[in-house]
Amino acid sequence: MSFRPPADLADGRSVRWRALEGDGLEHLTVRAQANGLRAEATVVGERDGSRFGASYRIDCDADFTVRSFEVATTDGRGLAMTRRDGAWHDGERGLLPAFDGCVDIDLSATPFTNTLPIRRLAWEIGHQRRIAMLFVPFDSFEPFVTEQVYTCLAPRLFRFETADGSFTAELPVDEDGLVMDYPCLFQRL
Fold first, then answer.
1. Using CB atoms within 10 A of its CB, is residue 84 exposed (0-12), middle (13-18) or buried (19+)?
2. What angle do CA 168, 152, 115 make, to 5 degrees?
3. CA 73 from centroid of its chain's CA atoms
4. Cβ neighbour number for residue 176 with a 10 Å cutoff
5. pLDDT band at residue 135, thresholds of 50, 70 and 90?
6. How far apart are CA 30 and CA 71, in angstroms?
7. How much is the pLDDT for 51?
8. Strands 104-107 and 128-136: what pairing?
9. 162 near 169, Cβ under 8 Å?
């Protein structure tokens, strides 16, 4: 299976998704840099009757391995974490061993973070992978570990499942590995 090389993102690529639950919109730009990739986005939305506005930045190696991320809301809350030598750190608590083993992150308000394991790992049709994720909910910004299962169903089509089986979605992706449609949650504009 092939995706466009990350270097093809040197001039940047911008996409937008709309939320299918409540009101919401995301504008994302992914750009290749000398030392990898940077994704930056602004998200406005509504969850459980509460409106929010946030921005995030994710820095990755060229293979989509996350090095650092920052999330900040318009009301002043936020979280910034860095991964060095396989260990996660933040500015307030220092070393965070609870997240050892997590390479990928999942920010709850965006489909972009599904791109990270899809692009980072080599896939063949039928391959299935169980992945420990550093999950960041946008209501609390208190990260925790969750397990997710990805299965390659066809070129550029993946099944995403929570490890407990409570949620499943088929995710078609484009030539850059960006989600086109996330049933019940997001749709690309």
1. exposed
2. 75
3. 17
4. 16
5. very high
6. 16
7. 85
8. parallel
9. no
